Amino acid sequence: MNAPKRWYREPWPWILMAGPAIVVVAGIYTAFLAVTTSDGLVAEDYYRRGVEINRRLSGEERAHVPAKQAMPVRQ
Asked: Which one of 1, 26, 28, 66 is least enclosed by Cβ atoms within 10 Å?
């Protein structure tokens, strides 16, 4: 009779372990990138710019209010 092969001589355990091993390597690489690269701001005054954008958008909405009130609603 043929003696059974050792588990490490079979291809299926290695195929099944390849997926989790790739994920572990990718996670380590992602953590390395997160630690070594800087998270620079898009703009130094991002808060002031955001407030200005919100103010401008609310002004544009108010500019459309008279036009919306003048249009009859069709049903």
From this structure: 1
